[in-house]
Amino acid sequence: MTVTSLKPVARELDASGLSCPLPILKTKKAIGGLETGDVLRVVSTDPGSLNDIESFCKQTGNDLLASSEHDGSYEFLIRKN
Amino acid sequence: MTNLAEVKNDMPAADLQSAQMNEWFEKKFEEEMKKREAAHVPSMALIATKGTLDMAYPPFILASTGAALGWDVSVFFTFYGLLLLKKDIEAKVSPLGNPAMPMKMPMGPDWLQNMNIPMPNAIPSVIPGFENVATNLMKKTFKNKGVASIEELRELSLEADVKLLACQMTVDVFGFTHDDFIDEVSYVGAATFLPEAQKADVTLFI
User: Fold this and answer.
1) Quick one: CATH architecture of A9-79?
2) What is this model's ipTM?
3) Each residue of B20-54: pLDDT tens digit?
4) Which is the catalytic residue, given A20, A25, A28, A29?
5) What DSSP string runs through B11-59?
């Protein structure tokens, strides 16, 4: 299942194979380089990232537009605020 | 909260005024508290006291993640925790006196890699160089699992403005000099750290 967003994805981050806390640290870095409103697509394989990315977005005030799981791989769409 | 419309009719003027006042105050107070909460930057103050590889992870994982969440983070390194501030981190891990620590095999088929091999104290205590073997196996397993190295996490913490504080007293006790440590370290005592910890939302002793 692939999630689609209204705004095209401005940046892709592949955090596959990385364990906690690297997917979060790399997501934070990637968001830092974006403009407000830009969408970041993150792919990870760490099952913990399902909860962690959601918590990260809540804490940092960014929008988690969608998250999905497919075949042990997780996909997130985050809009920078 | 009182429903003003219901009680208004049979209330004396003075009571009515005070009820309105209370309602206004409650609303205003809630608004102000929300504003204050939104403006509050969370902070975390950690104490790192251990210098082995397994105990080096928690402070750096928490510090780098806290910083990624936008928190103000400071870590006070004291006693063996100081070793984690050295230019070259030599942290090792030993199953000796660490009975719950299983050994991991970082190579071979999955069933072997997933096995937790118990290590009775008698073995590491008599075999020379066992600690190095255990450390290498552990580092390799971490790498295979996509876990960052301590050096990497420390670098990421520094990039994210985590404050690294070294306990000057233990620096002196162990005969270290400031040259032994990375440049970003500040040297302080308990009197500097405690007021930071007092303001912090999260404090942990590791």
Assistant:
1) 2-Layer Sandwich (3.30)
2) 0.79
3) 899 999 999 999 999 998 889 999 999 999 998 88
4) A20
5) S-HHHHHHHHHHHHHHHHHHHHHHHHHHHPPPEEEEEE---SHHHHHHH
